[in-house]
Amino acid sequence: MPSPRRSVEGRPLGVSASSSSSSGSPGSPAHGGGGSSRFEFQSLLSSRATGVDPACARLRASESPVHRRSSFPLAAAGPSQAPPPPLPEEDRMDLNPSFLGIALRSLLAIDLWLSKKLGVCAGESSSWGSVRPLMKLLEISGHGIPWLVGTLYCLCRSDSWAGREVLMNLLFALLLDLLLVALIKGLVRRRRPAHNQMDMFVTLSVDKYSFPSGHATRAALMSRFILNHLVLAIPLRVLVVLWAFVLGLSRVMLGRHNVTDVAFGFFLGYMQYSIVDYCWLSPHNAPVLFLLWSQQ
Ligand SMILES: CC(C)=CCC/C(C)=C/CC/C(C)=C/CC/C(C)=C/COP(=O)(O)O
């Protein structure tokens, strides 16, 4: 049955890396036994040198997941027998899936299954539908607009240089976050889960895509920023971390995101803070910015 083509490093799977021949000569890759027949040949030679039973060596060669399919017919065929007819190319490729491909597909399947299971507030009629208004309130607490408006307001009201410096960097962090999330969403273009209701408060056009979660990036970025620049009592610090975690979880519960969107969002937000910290704006390295602002 025809199946999708897959390749490793741009080469069709099942083709020996060292082979340049594409002709149908016996034992050549195109003959369905290329890499594996060479593999088996080598194992037979080495078994002679080491005194290992050739049958065992053949068995070991055929145990390799990469070589199993195509080495078996050659192993069974005697030296006088003609090589088997070439397998259809698609067939060989399908029988040699890469480990990374399998791992990614499995992760994706688990992600979709878990996200659907956790999407208990995706609609009013869902099992936890009554909690949906609370989840939507949390959604607003991590939205870009309240954070931007709040930061701009505090920046206008601030009368100390130290305060202005922190707020200026907070504004930079929020804008960087919006930019990076929009860029990645536009590049990856992963659709939101099918059970999501698109009833979000003010969105950008890229917000029809779900990877990564903008709320999760903001939650990680803002909580790291607050913990590093505000002196807070321990219970409040715990509350900040809890807010970030629950906000991320609420994205999956509302059906807005898959688990991997939120997990990557947390990672991205965490890294964004490192960028902000590294490029920290101050009256020393960005005097123009601070002078302009003080003249407002
Ligand atoms: C005020 C200044 C200086 C600039 C404005 C910048 C700007 C374009 C703001 C837009 C804010 C906005 C609408 C953000 C969208 C937030 C959102 C809905 C993200 C989606 O989150 P997700 O978790 O569902 O991915």
Describe this structure in words.
InterPro entries: PAP2/HPO (IPR000326), PAP2/HPO_sf (IPR036938). Residues 1-40, 69-92 are annotated as: Disordered. Its main location: endoplasmic reticulum. It is a multi-pass membrane protein. The chain is mainly α. The chain folds into two domains: 7-97, no CATH class; 121-294, no CATH class. Helix content is 60%, strand content 1%. The chain has twelve helices and two strands. It has helices spanning 34-50, 54-63, 68-76, 89-94, 99-118, 132-141, 144-157, 161-188, 214-229, 234-253, 259-278, 287-294; strands at residues 7-8, 11-12. Strands 1-2 form a two-stranded antiparallel sheet. Strand 1 (7-8) and strand 2 (11-12) form a beta hairpin. The structure holds the ligand CC(C)=CCC/C(C)=C/CC/C(C)=C/CC/C(C)=C/COP(=O)(O)O. The ligand CC(C)=CCC/C(C)=C/CC/C(C)=C/CC/C(C)=C/COP(=O)(O)O binds at residues 143-145, 148, 178, 200, 202-204, 207, 213-215, 251, 256.
